[in-house]
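[audit] Reproducing an earlier prediction to check determinism. Same input, same settings, fresh worker. If the tokens differ from the archived copy the diff job will pick it up downstream; this log only records the rerun itself.
[audit] input (394 residues):
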Amino acid sequence: MNLNDSKYTSIPVGKLGIIALESSKELGALVDKHIVNWRTKRNQERHDSIEFDGYLKDSYLLDAACPRFGSGEAKGLLKESVRGSDIYLLVDVLNYSIQYKLCGHMNRMSPDDHYSDLKRLISATCGKARNVNVIMPFLYESRQHRRTTRESLDCAVMLQELVSMGVNNIITFDAHDPRVQNAVPSHGFETVQPTYQFVKALLNCCDDLQIDNKHMMIISPDEGAMQRSIYFANVLGIDVGMFYKRRDYSTIVDGRNPIVAHEFLGDSVEGKDVIIIDDMISSGESMIDVARELKRRKAKRVFCISTFGLFTNGLDSFDKCYEDGTIYKVITTNLTYQIPELFDREWYVSADVSKYIALLIDNMNHDASISDILDPTERIKLRIEEYKNGKRSF
């Protein structure tokens, strides 16, 4: 699909409005820019009709805020009407860079704070919007998605809370466990894979890749990442291997059972470029351990790909791995907060997903199918063919 020439057979379901919370201001601005550009370039024959009222705008971002009192309490505030609009709220619950004053002290916003602000702005629509859609790239509490003992089911509770407030659709990226959508079976829920964006970033950052079984391999760092690794391997046409974690279940350290060793299942990686793919890099310890195991098995170059780069323990360990040749490149998306220091690192590559989000919003606003958008297989094959033929237009 040529995005600039995309046309629709249906009218918009309502005036488009995008509410980018403070946590997603930068990403929201990029998304808005794409949509403004596409709609400006489309056939404008019907844009003066009542059905397309408000279709062409300089910006679809709505003026919204969550001001706080000195006690730390807050409220959601919409500064323009949303009656009859198709609203998309964009929130990054992992953006810890935002601070607010609490009884004279500066306090960093936690995922709980961001989620509360999201609910405040949904509440501020007062039920007047035609549709309310939430785009939450990292699904709030997604790692607390199942119950193994007497503990909370935070992610399921969150989803039920949102739909009870009138949210029609929830879009997330690379959900830790997509089965959590069973908590809201009668409402729209999409977990999107940014595989195409990863492939573009990978091909752009390295011009000597040989994409075949003899020279490249996909590695799943654990059992949980196997499904996405298999898909990635299939679209690239290469083999997949897997590490599984041997844990000490008799001990709990920092709330989890410590990893004793990483065991490998798969073909030889000797002399091959290997791609480790996972949903997130938290502290990075697991990813680094797997990279070291691969280098010990004489892998050529190690590429680490992850949807969410949290780097909760800082960048020093990755700096060291780059210096000693353990890791060649790390690719993560701009779906969550990226510390400025990341962009100074030679080993880091950012995969921009704003165009993808804009395309999803644009299609949903026209009540058009997003099935083709969610399946990037053909686009990936085209990019790889162009890469092999020496074309770098993408």
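[audit] rerun output stored. Observation attached for the diff report: Residues 148 and 326 are 36 Å apart (CA to CA).
[audit] end
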